[in-house]
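for the recovery benchmark. tokens below, seq after
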């Protein structure tokens, strides 16, 4: 996969699908019922249920459009099936040491799954781009908004294929 390909793990893809289902099949029908009920109550200009409901419908519809486009655009890549486990590729969990001696572990995921608090970084982030295709023991320079840093790759792992 090239860095320009929009990849996503199977778990990330399932999360997008679950959010789409929740919005389209659960939330939206309930909001439509509320708006229909509120519309039948007369003056819509001062009807909070109607005004909020219409606003929420626009939000849901916008998010649904976004999710449908994302689901169609991403390539699902299962990190457990990576054949070259000696190099950093999409889905790898990488432990590296910074110049200052701090050790960090990150997992390289698609942009829809990025969550720095869990150590999930986008494959298009400066750190991931500098780590991709490297091996244990390699030293890489990374340019981040905080400046230049040298990283040494200590460990590379992938989910178990079973």
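predicted aa per position
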């Amino acid at each position: 996969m090239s860095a320009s390909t929009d990849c996503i793990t199977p778990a990330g893809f399932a999360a997008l699908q679950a959010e789409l289902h929740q919005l389209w099949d659960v939330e939206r029908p309930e909001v439509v019922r509320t708006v229909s009920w509120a519309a039948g109550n007369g003056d819509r200009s001062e009807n909070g249920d109607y005004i909020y409901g219409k606003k929420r419908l626009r939000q849901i519809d916008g998010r649904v459009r976004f999710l449908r486009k994302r689901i169609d655009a991403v390539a699902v890549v299962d990190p457990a099936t990576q054949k070259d486990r000696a190099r950093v590729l999409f889905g790898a969990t990488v432990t590296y040491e910074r110049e200052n001696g701090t050790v960090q572990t990150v997992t390289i995921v698609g942009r829809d799954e990025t969550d720095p608090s869990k150590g999930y970084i986008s494959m298009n982030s400066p750190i991931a781009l500098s780590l991709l295709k490297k091996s244990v023991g390699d030293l890489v320079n990374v340019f981040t908004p905080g400046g230049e840093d040298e990283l040494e790759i200590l460990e590379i792992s992938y989910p178990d294929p079973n």
